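Private note to self, pasted from the team thread so I don't lose it. Backbone tokens:
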């Protein structure tokens, strides 16, 4: 499809000459971001105009382009994050599933529908539909640089919005790849990238976008919300987590151990919905610790193709992870897998340490007997570390799970009481007898409560998140008694009061 637009998505990137992947150029991020938003606003009118069916067709083409080039994209993700190729392919596959769902369900979820009337408003016929905000700014993290931002991008596009996307400064080429792929499939700059760090994110918050979808740390979410408050720009905030996996006395212990190890250690623990804490009923605690030890001690972090875990992508996170583990061990925790001491002695890591340097690796750690109140119990660790704690019963498990500022995800393993315990965990999403299952179900809303943020991506809620409800009430006939004019007299007020009493007043047979 040809395009009349002179400015291409890549032209509004704030990367300086070196092309996508280079660090942000010194200069005027605000101007570059403003240019991208202006271009997006121009093309949004066309995108909204082609309707649900037109967008579905083009989003399907985009999905096919991603699938056809899956290995190429996975290689870029691997280069930038260090994660194993298979894990990169998995996150791309899940993102594609979501894109397909959003494209297919947007019309039914957002399209105009009739809304019932009431006796007092019988003269009105009403409809509601969900209209695109316009241009959505999306700020993404690096840990799942495809899956996470696509939860906002795909759903916002399906709703008829244009998107200006700022990928993490650690994964700019992945972000640019997605934009280039969209360009190949659609031929018009409806999705654009702006590259750079916090200053570019800040500029996007101030750029006049109609809504901002942010995914990243809770600390940055607070800054984003404060900045957006200045212009009353609505925000969706997907923050950090400290998810717990709860194991009841009747659980399949082997399955729970495998889930804890995968949920806690895959992607080297750099997963917002990763398992950071395991809370096990005392009746199965010892058996579970043995099973987790057996599973986790088989895994190895490395930069080679056979490694189970990749490196720590964010250089400064290495010291945070080591620090939390060392502090817990100094306060009495025991490592049943891993050796915190050797990590302590590992070489210093700076932002100049290449991702292929062994200093960026942390081998899996499983801690038991962590003292209550230790940082590792309440703060996000974001590394390949799991703590396993003993609880008396499921009441205590729920109380401990909920005693953190976060409320993102979690899991419950129980043969009889899974859903019941899950409902008591104060988090946006809980898996029962599996781990992170909710993330792969496109129909399920994804998001947190408390320090994990607010708003939802995925599912019908995710589609509505990027649109506003437009209500229309049309008068079908002149009502015999009208309450909304100045001609109203005491007789009409009396009729209204009688009608109210009949409809909503206490019945004679009610006490
Ligand atoms: P981060 O907060 O450091 O950065 C996230 C993004 O915000 C980056 O693109 C960054 O450039 C940008 N940014 C930084 N300062 C900004 C500012 N002042 N204004 C605007 N933008 C700014 O997070 P990260 O290290 O990239 O990602 C890891 C965090 O993300 C973890 O806490 C993880 O739990 C969280 N996360 C949450 C989800 C979720 O769905 N809830 C998903 C993935 C990651």
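Design output:
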């Amino acid at each position: 499809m040809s395009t009349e637009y002179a400015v291409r998505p890549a032209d509004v990137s704030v990367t300086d000459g070196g092309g996508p992947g280079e660090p942000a150029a010194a200069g005027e991020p605000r101007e570059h971001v403003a240019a991208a938003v202006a271009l997006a606003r121009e093309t949004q009118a066309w995108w909204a105009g082609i309707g649900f069916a037109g967008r579905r067709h083009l989003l399907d083409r985009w999905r096919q382009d991603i699938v056809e080039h899956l290995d190429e994209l996975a290689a870029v993700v691997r280069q930038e994050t260090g994660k194993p190729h298979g894990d990169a392919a998995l996150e791309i596959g899940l993102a594609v599933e979501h894109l397909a769902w959003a494209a297919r369900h947007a019309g039914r979820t957002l399209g105009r529908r009739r809304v019932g009337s009431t006796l007092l408003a019988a003269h009105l016929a009403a409809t509601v539909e969900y209209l695109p905000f316009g241009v959505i700014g999306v700020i993404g993290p690096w840990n799942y640089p495809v899956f996470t931002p696509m939860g906002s991008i795909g759903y916002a596009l399906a709703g008829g919005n244009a998107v200006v996307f700022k990928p993490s400064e650690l994964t700019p080429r992945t972000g640019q790849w997605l934009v280039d792929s969209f360009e190949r499939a659609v031929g018009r700059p409806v999705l654009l990238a702006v590259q750079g760090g916090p200053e570019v994110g800040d500029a996007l918050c101030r750029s006049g976008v109609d809504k901002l979808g942010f995914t990243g740390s809770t600390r940055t979410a607070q800054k984003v919300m404060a900045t957006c408050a200045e212009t009353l720009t609505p925000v969706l905030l997907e923050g950090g987590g400290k998810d717990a996996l709860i194991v009841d006395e009747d659980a399949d212990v082997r399955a729970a151990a495998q889930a804890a190890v995968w949920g806690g250690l895959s992607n080297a623990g750099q997963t917002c919905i990763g398992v950071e804490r395991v809370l096990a009923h005392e009746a199965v605690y010892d058996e579970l610790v043995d099973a987790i030890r057996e599973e986790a001690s088989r895994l190895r972090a490395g930069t080679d193709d056979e490694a189970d875990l990749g490196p720590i992508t964010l250089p400064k996170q290495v010291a945070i992870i080591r620090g939390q583990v060392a502090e817990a061990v100094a306060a009495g925790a025991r490592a049943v897998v891993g050796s915190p001491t050797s990590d302590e002695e590992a070489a210093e890591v700076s932002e100049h340490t290449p991702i292929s340097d062994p200093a960026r690796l942390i081998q899996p750690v499983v801690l038991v007997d962590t003292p209550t109140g230790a940082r590792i119990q309440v703060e996000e660790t974001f590394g390949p570390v799991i703590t396993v704690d003993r609880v008396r019963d499921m009441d205590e498990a729920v109380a401990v799970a909920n005693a953190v500022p976060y409320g993102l995800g979690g899991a419950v393993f129980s043969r009889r009481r899974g859903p019941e315990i899950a409902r008591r965990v104060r988090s946006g999403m809980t898996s029962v007898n599996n781990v992170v299952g909710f993330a792969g179900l496109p129909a399920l809303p994804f998001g947190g409560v408390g320090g994990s943020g607010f708003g939802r991506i995925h599912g019908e809620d995710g589609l509505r998140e990027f649109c506003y409800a437009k209500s229309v009430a049309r008068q079908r006939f002149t009502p015999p008694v009208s309450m909304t004019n100045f001609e109203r007299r005491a007789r009409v007020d009396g009729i209204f009061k009688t009608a109210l009493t009949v409809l909503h007043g206490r019945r004679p047979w009610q006490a």
